[in-house]
Design brief:
The structure is a homodimer.
Chain A (H helix, E strand, L loop, with lengths): L12 H21 L5 H8 L3 H7 L3 H26 L2 H18 L3 H7 L7 H22 L9 H14 L9 H12 L2
Chain A binds a DNA duplex through α1, α2 and α3.
Chain lengths: 190, 190
DNA sequence: ATACTATACGGAGGTTGCCTCCGGTTGCAA
DNA sequence: TTGCAACCGGAGGCAACCTCCGTATAGTAT
């Protein structure tokens, strides 16, 4: 994981290990049950006490944030890659579709976290800002190419993707996701 | 309220009264705290026991559904009114905007319920179907006038409105709602 | 090796909200 | 007035959350 980060007081080996084990268990739980995970189950699956879980992640949100850090990093990287791989509009579209895929996979909690504003300076907050920034570059590129309306902002698009995911979440039928996505894409073109 | 409906076995007077009082308390609570209401609080505010609440509304969902019945009826009526009052595209746009207003007011639970599929034959289910139907008429009218793409369905639009509302829900800044709405509208035009 | 201590562990238990169940109450028809 | 079906209310069992503190141990200093 990406917890090789420098810390003022380095963690003890056992603490570091537990931290990672908890994260693994969390990701597994989220992939299976979505955002409404039971913290005690996660602790048990990770083989640690509930107290240990709460010490590392005082808040449910902090736990989920940590679990999604990788996704934020990944999405940022994908944006960078797409910038050089595809034409402006195609790159933007591809990245937005990725946002939906990642969001849907994490049962929308991911999307919710990606769009949320976090306490300044957090690792995840920085990762999210970077991700948004990379997306903004894609957007601006398409706008400069004259293919996307200039009054659209990156947050609009992220929230729309997020909205599509959660609006379709409890629907057994996912077949309308693509049409909805197409509507949004058509709506941002010049 | 609209509980003057015929019942095979008419309710006793006290039961009918409690039913209505509970609904009033529920609407107040939802307007204030959104979907995450505390059922015991509602019962207390309504001046009834928790058991009484559960007898009338065995499920949290059923309670919320009942509380939103009025909105569904209202939205259906508005659709009918708009059909005769405005030009096809304008009418559709106005109605979609209403969907957002209603949804945002009810803290998005409303939108969630409106879009949800319910157990067949429920009063709210019928009301929702009627509302969707009325919206579909507006949409078809705009499509027949050649102003809206023919591959768009009414559920797409309802879900997109719903998505916009909840995606912006926790954002302190609601200023991006209109731009997002505009993107969608631009996206459905021919 | 040994001792020392800051760091970390774990789970018992208090709290809150959900929901069920049933003894007691009451509207209403006869 | 009486009888009873319909209804009321809240005690209590359960599930999940979160805190607190006595115990254990990794890492360091000697």
């Amino acid at each position: 994981m990406n917890e090789t980060v420098v810390r003022k007081v380095p963690r003890r080996a056992d603490a570091q290990h537990n931290y990672e084990v908890i994260l693994v268990a969390t990701r597994a739980a989220v992939a299976e049950h979505g955002g409404d995970i039971v913290l005690e189950d996660i602790a048990r699956n990770a083989g640690v006490g509930i107290g240990t879980l709460y010490r590392h992640f005082p808040t449910r949100l902090e736990l989920l944030e940590a679990a999604y850090l990788d996704e934020a990093l990944e999405l940022r990287k994908r944006a960078d890659d797409l910038t050089t791989a595809l034409a402006p509009l195609d790159a933007l579209i591809a990245w937005l579709r990725l946002q939906m895929v990642f969001g849907a996979h994490g049962r929308s909690m991911g999307a919710a976290i990606m769009n949320a504003k976090h306490t300044e300076g957090t690792e995840i907050q920085i990762a999210c800002v970077n991700m948004r920034e990379a997306g903004a570059v894609l957007l601006r590129r398409a706008q400069d190419a004259g293919e996307v309306r200039s009054d659209v902002e990156i947050v609009d698009l992220l929230r729309l993707m997020h909205g599509i995911v959660i609006a379709n979440e409890q629907a057994p039928d996912q077949s309308r996701v693509t049409p909805m996505f197409d509507v949004v894409i058509a709506g941002i073109r010049t």
